[in-house]
Amino acid sequence: LFLLFFTTHEELQTLDVDDAFFSTPEDIAARALKPQGGVNFIRTFKKQEEDQAVNLPPNLDELVKNATYVQSPDNLVWQYFYNLKGSAKYPFPGGVFQWARYRINGTGLNETEKIFSESLNKHENTLTLATLRIFSNGLGQPHFHFNANEMGYVISGCGQVGVILSGVTSNFNIGIGDVIFFPVGTQHYIKSVCDEDLLLVLAYSTGNQLETLRMKDYFHGTADHILAQLFFKEQAEFKKFPRAAK
Question: In angstroms, rounded to a whole number, what is the distance separating the alpha carbons of residues 162 and 127?
Answer without folding.
Answer: 23
